[in-house]
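Input/output pair, single chain:
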Amino acid sequence: MRKMYWLLALLILGGSGFVTYRYWSASEHNGKRSYVTESVDRGDIVSVVTATGTLNPVTSVQVGTYVSGPIQAIYVDYNSNVTKGQRVAKIDPAPFQVKVRKAEASLANAKAKVDKDQADLALKKLTLERNAQLIKRNLIAQNDVDTARSDYDQARAQLALDAAAVQQAEADLQDASINLGYTDISSPVDGVVVSRNVDVGQTVAASFQTPTLFLIAKDLTKMQVDTSVSESDIGAVQPDQTANFTVDAYPHKAFQGRVKQVRNAPITVQNVVTYDVVIAVDNPELQLKPGMTATVTITTARRDGVVRVPVRALRFNPEHKAGEATPRPSPATGGHAGPKTAVWLLQPDGQIEKVDVHLGLRNDQFAELLSGDIKPGDEVAVALKTGVARPTPPSIPGGGGGPRFGGGRR
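Output:
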């Protein structure tokens, strides 16, 4: 009798296990998926390019010296306002004054030689004319006439030679005077002294290259930001686009500018290619200073009041198989329709339906909807929930942890 009870218990356990296994399998296979969704809405889409740059004056002039010598005096300092032609420093003029006096003496000597040549030429001319008259009367030999004519020609050539020497002496004097004038270092523009690189008593040498004594910014109320834009973003940047930037000195204030120039010269640093984009900036309050680092945001395109689809919805694909790369939709720019793509629209019964859409402008968060059977307020799937709820399995006959046997002795 006891063997029959044990046999019956084994049959009940095996049947309940088989039923439970089939139930869990069916629940796993037929269970409904849950999705993470986001709403389609209406709003603005702004496409931007970010970069870093440095503030610089629009025009800055390096003031150097053409001549060498010790600095005798400095008349300006940092932040000094200067006007065009104003003397900013002076080099000791004594050696150049000596060269001017020497050139003046050489010129006087050359002019004296010309005066002497003119007197000698007049004498030679009279001698030639006198001999010409005497030869007609056969009073002198022809050789005397020829000699007088040769002396006259030589005197005339000597006069021309010494006249050229006078011109050379005048040029030497002018050169010495110019070098003397270069000892007064003047500002070539109206502006502000940004840097000063010399002190009084310091000797500057201009033998090989012109040393820079001062850096003068022409107008600090007009400045520019020289930014480095990567080659992947440069295609969207065009002149006259709006740009905003911040500097560390005023972290809570945004300055505005406009793209002035996109330079075609590439800059390659460690195999990274960038291009210089010049942004014009007004600086009426002189808050911005040369050399400040700016974090720039260039607005390359903007759409106001358009239907926006979350970018995450474009990357979601429930048909994607494990191990395959999920294709990313290519960005569309301007107002042209981009390539056809799809989103998954949430239905009232909790299921999702594939909807084909055409997209326009996009940024990191939203894409502009140009066409497609979706509207603001619709929910689109952006991800699959990792946890899926399972129903409670059926109870096993007899309850508890196993079958209970009756009829035995207690």
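Residues 21-31, 322-337, 388-410 have pLDDT under 50 and may be disordered. The two ends are 16 Å apart (CA to CA).
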